[in-house]
Structures are given as structure tokens and as C-alpha cells.
Amino acid sequence: MTIRRLARHLGLSASLAVLTASAAAAQVPEATVTTAVDRVMPEVVAWRRDLHQHPELGFAETRTAGVVADHLRALGLEVRTGVGKTGVVGVLRGARPGRTVALRADMDALPVKEATGLAFASTATGTYMGETVPVAHACGHDAHVAMLMGAAEVLAGMKDQISGTVVFIFQPAEEGAPPGERLGGAALMIEEGALKDPAPEAIFGLHVVPGVPGTIFYRPQGFMAASDRVDIVLHGKQTHGAWPWKGVDVIAAAANVVQTVNTLTARTIDPTSTPTVFTIATLDAGVRYNIIPDSATLSGTLRTFDVAQRDALVARAEAAIDNVAEAYGATADFAVKQNAALVFNDETLSAWLAPVLEEAAGAGKVNPATPPTTVAEDFSYFQRVVPGVFYHLGGSPDGVDPATAAPNHSPAFDVNEKILPLGVRAHVFSALRFLERPEN
Length: 440
Hints:
- By secondary structure, the chain is of the alpha+beta class.
- Helices cover 36% and strands 24% of the residues.
- It contains eleven helices and 18 strands.
- It is elongated.
- It starts with a helix and ends with a helix.
- The model is unreliable at 1-25 (pLDDT under 50).
């Protein structure tokens, strides 16, 4: 029954029915959002620079989580900490009941030595793989946290105009489960109830990447690849480098394994059907120039968009690597562990979101049909539970071709701070407009 018909049924006046219907459908004006975002931007920039200067590795984001939790509590939100070790969940309940929507940002940094030359560049260190390493926000997560903190402040200031609930998820360990950990940040937060009490009906997230500043791009369905970590250990027999025939040469076998992996991908996958990347990125073997060691350890990453194709490639790779090892008289251990599932943007939600993001970015600044990308994101695990959309925010330096800009994970990667207001607006509009949608 419509509000107008219900009013007549209860004997209410027609004018009251119209007034009630108008209130239920009221939208927060675009200008109101823009003004509120502009007001919070000095804080957002300050947060971003502070977090950039104090980066922390996955599941060690204690300072970052403290900054986030203190801010959310100051806004009057319900706050849960320690969700997935260092994760933080904030809940903003509007003045009236309604839908529930979630917004997510990731908090962790990388074991990278920064080379940006910024006045607030990181000199921090952390422990990774048992060693002390430099740590930097070389992927932009400092900006993600700052933008979502800003969105929380803007939305909290509009509490009286909101019907429904906004859940803010600040996630650790997006870059994958650290060595020895069972799960990465998203999966662990889900396991520990981040998407319960309240349970969102939709979830949205963003990532800064090289791109024209002020643009947003994504695609429905498969957007970012599933990511697997691949580990290979070759076992041979140590010998003098001058007498290779007296041992089993794992160095030669390792070189052949790398070529085999490259050939498998290039010669057994149809490149027109789905993007696939299989890269061996590390090779650790030997301690001296004239000794052939008894073992070699390789690791790499597999990026795919099709589950059946991925499984078939993994099976072929394991068989081929075993054959290579056998040909040299060696043996091989082969292991695969998924770091992130396929980022799959809900098709209906993707179509609905395009004009909302254009409201945030401006006409012609949003591309909802960009090609898929082989980088990965564990936001995908949230999308397995709740329909969601993940989108990219172009953040290259002014006047720099995005094709030549320093990529994410590079020591020189930096975020153009001029895009921070857009990220805040995109979060705010996504939440507000979703909550303003009429109930089915």
C-alpha cells in the first residue's frame, strides 16, 4: 500500500499524506554535500599526511586503527575494534530506520622504501619475513583511510537527514595474509562478524590508481583479477660449480621452470577470452658463486578471471614443473594459495551507481565500462557475502601521463591530493543515495 493510500485508509488528510510521501523521498541536496565535504578537507589532508608518515604493515596497524577508532567515537558512532586483529567497524544510525549500506577502506602499507621526496615521506620500518624492512604507503591506503574518515564526519553531520544505517569498515592486511597467517584482512573481518549486526544490503569501495585526476572508472561483473600466490621449491644435490654432473643442478632447473611458466600462459590460454597473468617474481638459491646449491625457492603470482580456466592452468603448471624437475633429476614441491577472489561488481548495482558517481565527479568523468585489470583486491570477499561495487579513482600527478606515472607498489608512487575531495564525495553520495532508494 502506498503512503497516500495508507493515509486515506487511516483517515488522514491528503495534505498530510503528500507531506509524508515527500519526506520519505527527500534527498540531501548535492550542494549540501559539497559544502560539508569542503569543510572537512583540511582534516582529510592532515590525516592522509600523518598516516603516510606513519605506515604499518598488515595486522600491525595498531596506531592507524587507534586514529580511526578515536575519530569515529568522537563523531558519536558505535565502534568495534579488534575485528580481524586490527580492523575497526563504525556504525552510524540515522534519525529514522531504513536500509543499511557499508563503505570500506584498507589500512595496511607495504615493505617498500619510499622514494617520493615528499616532506612527509615515510622513514618507518617494520618486521616482514623475520627481517626489519622499510615500510611505506606505496599503494595509497593512507588516502583511502583519510577519505573514509572524512566521509564518516560528513555523514555523521547529516544524521538527522538520514533514514537507515551506514557501516564504516576499516580493514587491515589487504595486501594479503602475512606469512604464518591463515587469512587476509577481508576474510578474517568477515569471519569475525564485520558484516553482521547490522548486516549491510550493499557495500562500496574505491582504490586510487594511476589515471587522469578526478576520473572514476570500473566495470560490471569481473573487474579485478583473482590472485593466487604460487610457491615452488626445487630439491637437488649440491656440488662444485666446476663439476655440475656430480650433483643435481637446481639453478638450471629453476631457469627452465620460469620459461615453462611463461610458455604455459602464452601457449595454452586464449588471450581473447580472458586476461591471464602467471609471473615468477622471486628466485632464492645459493650462497657462493662456485657452488651449485641443493635447493632453489621460487614464488610468483597467478591472476585469472575464470575459475575453471584457473584450475586447469594450475593443474597443467604443477604437472609441467614436476616434469622439468624430473628431467634434471630433481624433485619439486608446488603450492598455491589464494590471496584474493575475483572482484565481481554486481551488475544491477553497477548500473545504478554510475549516475551517483557522476554526481560526485561531474559529467563525463565516470567510465562504468573500463576494461578489466589484472591487479587484485580482497574487497572481493565482501562481495561474496553482500552485493557490491568497487571502483578506481584516477590520481596521477598533474600534467603526468597516467601511462608513465609511477604505479601502485612503486617506491615513487604518490597520490595527487587534489582528488581527495572527490573520494570523500563518492563515498558520501554512494551511501546517501543508496539509503534514499525506495524500499522494495
